[in-house]
């Protein structure tokens, strides 16, 4: 059997806020949604493919000290796309985990930006190559593992 990741599903506290955030940052289209009643959700996609579902059924913020999801990572084609995302995120006032674009480890060509969504869910936008000149925040562990 061969497996690949299907869509990602996230619980959010404010569907409208999260839908706007993911559409702005990632350029997702709304594939389907229900914005009234008790069971609110949004299906977000790209190029006709479902990528992310948002379910308004939580309160509080993402708990990084509990077992479960560590972070979501989204790959882009190159460092220019990472820098464009960085600019969009700065325009939204998003706080970065590290200071802008960083390498995945010392000497790596891969790297990206690390940040959180409005509910505190940890996110990464990275490229496999082109980040050679970016600093690595820690020398003894992968950047995407401890943030």
From TrEMBL:
<dbReference type="InterPro" id="IPR051332">
    <property type="entry name" value="Fosfomycin_Res_Enzymes"/>
</dbReference>
<dbReference type="Pfam" id="PF00903">
    <property type="entry name" value="Glyoxalase"/>
</dbReference>
<dbReference type="InterPro" id="IPR029068">
    <property type="entry name" value="Glyas_Bleomycin-R_OHBP_Dase"/>
</dbReference>
<feature type="domain" description="VOC">
    <location>
        <begin position="4"/>
        <end position="128"/>
    </location>
</feature>
<dbReference type="InterPro" id="IPR018146">
    <property type="entry name" value="Glyoxalase_1_CS"/>
</dbReference>
<dbReference type="InterPro" id="IPR037523">
    <property type="entry name" value="VOC_core"/>
</dbReference>
<keyword id="KW-0479">Metal-binding</keyword>
<dbReference type="InterPro" id="IPR004360">
    <property type="entry name" value="Glyas_Fos-R_dOase_dom"/>
</dbReference>
<protein>
    <submittedName>
        <fullName>VOC family protein</fullName>
    </submittedName>
</protein>
């Amino acid at each position: 059997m061969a497996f690949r990741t299907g869509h990602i599903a996230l619980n959010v506290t404010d569907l409208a806020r999260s839908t706007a955030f993911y559409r702005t940052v990632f350029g997702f289209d709304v594939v389907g949604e229900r914005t009234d009643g008790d069971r609110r959700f949004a299906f977000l996609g790209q190029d006709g493919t479902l990528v992310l579902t948002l379910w308004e059924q939580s309160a509080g913020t993402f708990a990084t000290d509990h077992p479960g999801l560590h972070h979501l990572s989204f790959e882009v084609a190159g460092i220019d796309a990472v820098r464009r995302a960085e600019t969009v995120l700065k325009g939204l006032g998003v706080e970065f985990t590290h200071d802008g674009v960083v390498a995945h480890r010392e000497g790596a060509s891969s790297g990206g930006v690390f940040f959180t969504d409005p509910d505190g869910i940890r996110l990464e936008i990275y490229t496999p190559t082109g980040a050679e000149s970016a600093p690595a925040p820690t020398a003894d562990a992968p950047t995407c593992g401890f943030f």
